[in-house]
Amino acid sequence: MDPDIGLFRADERVFTAMLDGWRAQMLARGLTTDTIKQRCQLLERFQRFTGEFPWQWRPADIDDFLASALWPSERGARMSLGSFGDAFAAARDAVGLPHELGLHCPRHFYVTHLVEAGYDAAFVQTQVGHSYASTTGLYTSASSDFKQKTVQQMIARRIANLEDPGA
C-alpha cells in the first residue's frame, strides 16, 4: 500500500485541516503572516516532538517539550533543564562547594541578600514573582549577623522611645 494515500493518514489530514482553519482565523484577526507562520511552526514542532495529534496531547507533553527545548541562541542549540543542572553541578564541584547546593539555591540567596540589604518586602516579592509574601518568606534565610543587627536596632528604637516618647 502507498503510505501517501490520504485515507491511510487520516490523523495527518485532520491536523493539516486544523492548522489551515487556524491560519484563516488568525488572518481574519489581522495577524501578520510572520506571526501566523511562527505559531503554526511551533504547533508542527510540538506535534513532531510528541508523535501525537492535538486530540491526544496531555499536559505533561507540554512540560516535556519545554524542558527539552529551552532557549536556543546563536552560540548553540536549545538547552535542556538537565544541561543547566549538569553545568551548575560542574561549576559547584570545580570551586569545592557542598553537593547539597542545588541549582535553585542561588534564587534563595538572591532573596536573602535583598532582604538583608534593606529592600522593601513587596519589592522583593515582586522581583521573584511570588503571589504571596509567605512564599517569599520561605525563601529567606537570614544570617546570624543580620538577625543580631536587626534585634539590636529594634532594642535601640525601643530605648529611644522610652527616653523620648514624643519621637
Walkthrough of the structure:
By secondary structure, the protein is mostly helical. The protein has two domains: 1-71, no CATH class; 99-167, no CATH class. It is built from eight helices and no strands. It has helices at 10-28, 33-50, 59-68, 81-94, 105-116, 121-128, 133-139, 144-163. Helix 1 (10-28) packs antiparallel against helix 2 (33-50) and helix 5 runs antiparallel to helix 6. The longest helix is centred in the last third of the chain and has 20 residues, at 144-163.
Question: How would you concisely characterize the structure shown here?
Answer:
The chain has 167 residues and is mainly α.
- The end-to-end distance, rounded to whole angstroms, is 93 Å
Silhouette: elongated
Q: Structural class, please?
A: mainly alpha
> Radius of gyration, rounded?
27 Å
Q: State the order of secondary-structure elements, H for helix, E for strand.
A: HHHHHHHH
